[in-house]
Specification:
Layout (H helix, E strand, L loop, with lengths): L4 E3 L11 E6 H10 L3 E2 L6 E16 L2 E19 L2 E23 L4 E10 L5 H12 L8 E4 L6 E5 L2 E15 L2 E13 L1
Antiparallel strand pairs: 1-2, 2-11, 3-4, 4-5, 5-6, 6-7, 7-8, 9-10, 10-11
């Protein structure tokens, strides 16, 4: 069972007016696993179903997350061109394993988390692993491109202290990873409700 903690300042030097929410690796792992299977976006030149089936052995380090990933495909066809003629190359089905990681950086002024994935083919003699690795290269999933993810504001928390009610709002100032944890820092705004 996982849990989340809140503390004032942690690891990276945070200003004294900030709090940090710490999300441990096992909570992150459970959150990720609850989203699986995850369909992958397909380009116009790809037909069939392609999805992430499993993510295991998650390791969280300094602004980097590493894991093992299983990607599966069904009835995959890839469009190629011969002169002006479009041809569909049948790839078929595959079940392939990869060593994967992503690095991240947070731009607080834009509320954007930049994620850069890296997918490496596991050493394997299986033909389908090689086919899947080539397919991922074509889809730009494995080439180290930085993807921006807009981070919405955290929902305010309503709490009661004694007989008074307070609204706690927080602007996120940083998101980073360190030593098996994801850390979310922010400046809280406390408002007493009437």
């Amino acid at each position: 069972m996982g849990f989340m903690t809140i503390c004032d300042g942690y690891a990276q030097a945070a200003p004294s007016d900030e709090i940090t929410i710490i999300v441990p690796r096992n909570v992150i792992a459970n959150m990720i696993k609850s989203t699986l299977p995850l369909n992958l976006e397909k380009a116009d030149y790809l037909k069939g179903r392609l999805w992430i089936h499993a993510i295991d052995n998650i390791t969280i380090g300094s602004d980097k997350v590493a894991f093992e990933m299983n990607i599966q495909g069904r009835n995959i066809k890839l469009e190629t061109h011969l002169g002006n003629q479009a041809l569909w190359m049948e790839i078929g089905n595959f079940n392939a394993d990869f060593d994967s990681s992503f690095s991240l950086r947070y731009d607080a002024s834009k509320r954007v988390l930049h994620v850069t994935p890296h997918v490496l083919q596991k050493n394997s003699d299986k033909k389908e692993n090689k086919i899947a690795a080539n397919l991922l290269q074509l889809m730009s999933l494995a080439n180290g491109v930085e993807y921006p993810i807009e981070i919405k504001k955290l929902q305010p928390v309503l709490t009661q202290i004694g007989s008074d009610q307070f609204n706690i709002d927080m602007d996120i100032t940083n998101i980073y990873t360190e030593k098996g944890r994801v850390l979310i820092s922010g400046r809280p705004k406390l408002e007493k409700l009437k």
